[in-house]
Amino acid sequence: MHRAELAVDGRIAAPFSNEDAEMAWATNGAEARGQAVFRLEWPEPVCVADVAYSGRVAFLIEECFRQYELWLDDDAAPVAAGGFRRGSGPQEIVIEPRKARKLELRFLGSYGGGNPGAEEI
Q: 112 with 62: CB under 8 angstroms?
C-alpha cells in the first residue's frame, strides 16, 4: 500500500487529504523507529546534482523525516548530511554534480509520526 516505488512516481497527495494510499512510501513506524534507508540504483552512471525530498504529510505533518545522510556509490562518507523541516513541499539537497550508479538516502530520525515516509523523492 505504501511501497518504495510510490516515492518515485511523480504523484503527490495534498497535505492533510488522508489520500496517499498508492501515492506515497511509508515505513512501518513501530518497526522503523523513525529511521529508514531509501536506495536508487541505475545500470549506468547518471549525473547527480541534487535530491528533492517531499515528506509524507497527507495524514499528519509529523510523518516526515527530520535528519538525513546522502551517500553515493560505495563512498566512505556521506556527500551531504543535514535536516529537513517539518511540512509539505520539496526540500532540496544540493551537492557538487558527479556521476554515480547508486544513491542512498539514510533517514536518521523523524518528527515522531506513526509511519514516516515520502510523498516523492
A: yes
